[in-house]
Amino acid sequence: MSAIEMYLKEAQTTKGTWHKMVISNLRNYMAETPEELIISAINKIQDPLLLPILWEVGLSQTLQDVSNKRGIRIAGSIKQGVTK
Q: Which pLDDT band, with edges at 50, 70 and 90, does 78 fall under?
């Protein structure tokens, strides 16, 4: 599990000030991480409920496109009963 996914799972389970802190920390982490590593991490996400939280962080157009494509792939996998 990538650091990005760990941040997203933490953000998913928190509310209020703590949630905002997790999002801010993820935003800082992503600002310091090469885009190629972020893309790789997004493409490994298995839980479709994490993707909207990723958008909350703020994404470049490239990362928005990657996130959208990942969501479509996850939806297709769920539809077919596959989790990869």
A: low
